[in-house]
Write a structure and sequence with these properties.
The chain is of the alpha/beta class. It has five helices and four strands. It has a four-stranded parallel sheet, covered by helices on one side. Helix 1 links the parallel strand 1 and strand 2.
Length: about 100
């Protein structure tokens, strides 16, 4: 059989509902290997939660509090940890009061 190539994936909004479920799904795939850069914003417990999950922590190679409003922060992430085979942008403002 053909060996699976490692895919480098950047996931924004990794601490949100969709992000957490995507990371879990990617980590549970037995036929593919993923190097996941999990970018998150303000959830302070996210890193602890991922590190404490043995199934997830082995595939998540980076946990980064990434400010998506900063071009410099995004550029530094791509330069330091890319190139990425895929970027899954799931980040959003979850509090309507912040939008106003």
């Amino acid at each position: 059989g053909k060996a699976a190539m490692t895919k480098n994936i950047l996931i924004t909004g990794a601490s949100g509902y969709l992000g957490q479920h995507l990371i879990s799904a990617l980590c549970s795939c037995s036929d593919s290997k993923y190097k996941i850069c999990a970018a998150y914003g303000t959830l302070s417990t996210f890193e602890e939660d991922v590190v404490s999950s043995s199934q997830i922590s082995s595939s998540v190679t980076l946990l980064k509090n990434l400010d998506l409003t900063s071009k410099e922060a995004i550029s530094n992430t791509i330069q330091s940890h890319g190139p990425f085979d895929a970027v899954v942008h799931l980040a959003a403002i979850s509090s309507p009061g912040v939008c106003e």
